[in-house]
Amino acid sequence: MTIRPPVFDFDDAFFWEGAAQRRLLIQHCAACDTVRHPPTPVCPECGSLEQGAIESQGRGTILTWIVSRHPTEPDAEPRIVILVQLDEGTRLVSNLVDAEPAPTLNDARVEVCFVDHDGTVLPLFRLAGSGR
Description:
The protein has one helix and eight strands. By secondary structure, it is mainly β. The protein has two domains: 47 residues, no CATH class; 76 residues, CATH 2.40.50. The strands form two sheets. It has a five-stranded antiparallel beta sheet with strand order 6-5-4-7-8, with helices on one face. It is globular, with a radius of gyration of 16 Å. The relative contact order is 0.19.
């Protein structure tokens, strides 16, 4: 499967630059301390345009997940797509690696890992304590 590099824009360039450095950066409102993902130009809580970024510890809990199969590449390996509630308070959609689909994935603890796919560093997740 070919992964296209992300296209940066003003609002999310910091996220991808952080990923390239193997850091999970989350947008932070300088006015009301709200953290949010995906990045937006205006804080949905207070309307402020003042934003910065905080470094996430990269730990969270799986809220829900699906197995995704590529529609035009039926032989491509399926992916587990997860919605993670980060400990910092925001949610992030990513992939779970080094795990098999199982009913016990809901509420499982996960930690970020960074994987280089053809020069693009992606923040993915693995089950916490898997040690890989």
